[in-house]
Predict the 3D structure of the following.
Amino acid sequence: RKEVEQDPGPFNVPEGATVAFNCTYSNSASQSFFWYRQDCRKEPKLLMSVYSSGNEDGRFTAQLNRASQYISLLIRDSKLSDSATYLCVVNDAGKSTFGDGTTLTVKP
Amino acid sequence: GAVVSQHPSRVICKSGTSVKIECRSLDFQATTMFWYRQFPKQSLMLMATSNEGSKATYEQGVEKDKFLINHASLTLSTLTVTSAHPEDSSFYICSARGFRGSYEQYFGPGTRLTVT
């Protein structure tokens, strides 16, 4: 079993849709959690950190459930520019483990 | 803030030659830098972790004599692919972390290596 698992997708949604990604992790000692986005043939870029209380940044909401060991990312009112691969990252004492990513395609 | 540069962005070399890739943190001091490689449609694979002034820690299966890493200063790390072969062709990405108490990583734009 992988340390960090994501549904690879692809998720194909129309503009304006709401889409949610989940990510599960196996290391209960994990301390920090992040979502990155990666565009095709580009480097990953930090999208947002994930806090225990949940956090929101515009159309993006991240949630953490430590008991069930999963994090989620909700994107509301999807834009064409949201098309990318979304990477879940779990950190334990400085060591980051990346999920394989979930691919999102937003269509007009 | 938190800008990481990488050079070169693209390199084509002949089999048997060595290639050096530079990774620089431009506006912060990077106590730790990471080197990844990524094949098309695959996830990032961590190759090694380097802390300034000490030897790099390589992941299992990564040959340290083939992928030489030098983290000489708090703003510069280099990866040298020695005696490159076509199977080393890949997208190499560095990332840097330096904020005290934060584990966020900031990635360089990557180097696309093609070995002919």
Chain A has a mean pLDDT of 92. The CA atoms of residues 83 and 105 of chain A lie 5 Å apart.
